[in-house]
Amino acid sequence: MEPLDHPDSPPGASGRRARDLGVVFGSCGTGPLNAITDVPGVRVGHTTVRRPPDVHTGVTAVVPDLVGPHTPLPAGVFTGNGYGKLIGTTQLAELGTLETPVLLTSTLSAFRVADALVGWVLRRPGCEEVRSLNPVVGECNDGLLSDIRARPVREEHVRAALDTASDGPVAEGCVGAGTGTVALGFKAGIGTASRTPDVGDRRFTVGVLVQANFGGTLRVLGRTLAPRSPGVGPGGPGQDADVGSCMIVVATDAPVDSRQLTRVARRAVFALARTGAVYGHGSGDYAVAFGTRPDAGRPVADADLGLLFEAVLDGVEEAVLNSLLAAHTTTGFGGRTVPALPADALAGFGAVAGHAGP
């Protein structure tokens, strides 16, 4: 098996996040890691499968500690544009419950990953009598930079991502399911962020993780940046504006039900428009949102959801930018090269927009 490979700062990456550059979205505070793992009971694991020059892919696992076929969590799903293979979506929408971790991978590997996820769950203690299971697996097409027809993601890669999932800092950029993805004309990948909104007299945590692979022109705090913009670079082939995808996973410890989580998921997909997404014909834009503590006190009233919505909108916008800043220029299948977003191109963006500082 290829070794796990998820460096915090791959060669050529800035090693910096949006906030390191003074680019801040919204006024709500973040969790200590500014990651989906700030939500208690949520872990993330990656397996990167890289065989240069032709294979740049992998699998990412978002693992809620309490989830299982006997202990489903409330969840919602929303489709912005449905050109994708989000496995498990119909039962998730019908019942409003999540029974497994959420896995992300490459389009043609999604079916193998789903099978491996089922096997992993069935081998868990207490699942000896399970006869029905709904695996949830999302995907993005990384065929621009990776030999997607090779379907190199195997069962051992899936098990490794699940078994090594951690509640610590989340590696971003060219790692796991984001190893070969491209967004907004730049090399992209995995990105994450969190927010800690006060809802009434209670503080909750909302965390997001994105697998960014969609078309459009990057917008940061109202200003546009394209691969051929002055001071950015020579550009590359990029992802055609009409193709690509984005998978978004949202977790929260707020006591919300599946209907409310579906509303949360909608805002996650809406947030992509802030970053410049065009939701093209060939784009699969999805969000899955789940709650980790459905019985944690009185439920959140619908009238109080606004701050949770705002937290998701700001978090997704930041996670997409983090995915770009962490990625590195990659030459892949067919000799195609996609440039990274240089951190220097964002110099002054925070100060200009009046959002400098943490």
Spell out the key features of this protein:
358 residues; alpha+beta; 6 helices; 20% helix; globular; disordered C terminus
Structure overview:
With 358 residues, the chain is an alpha+beta fold. The protein contains six helices and 18 strands. Strands 4-3-16-15-12-9 form a six-stranded mixed β-sheet. Strands 1-2-5-6 form a four-stranded mixed β-sheet, with helices on one face. The longest helix is centred in the last third of the chain and has 21 residues, at 306-326. The termini are far apart.
Question: How does the SSE layout of this entry go?
Answer:
Layout: E1 42-51, E2 55-64, E3 73-82, H1 89-95, E4 97-98, E5 102-106, H2 110-122, E6 136-140, H3 155-163, E7 182-183, E8 186-187, E9 190-195, E10 198-199, E11 202-203, E12 206-214, E13 218-220, E14 223-225, E15 243-252, H4 258-275, E16 282-291, H5 306-326, E17 330-331, E18 337-338, H6 349-353
Parallel strand pairs: 5-6, 15-16
Antiparallel strand pairs: 1-2, 2-5, 3-4, 3-16, 7-8, 9-12, 10-11, 12-15, 13-14, 17-18
Helix pairs in contact: 2-3, 4-5
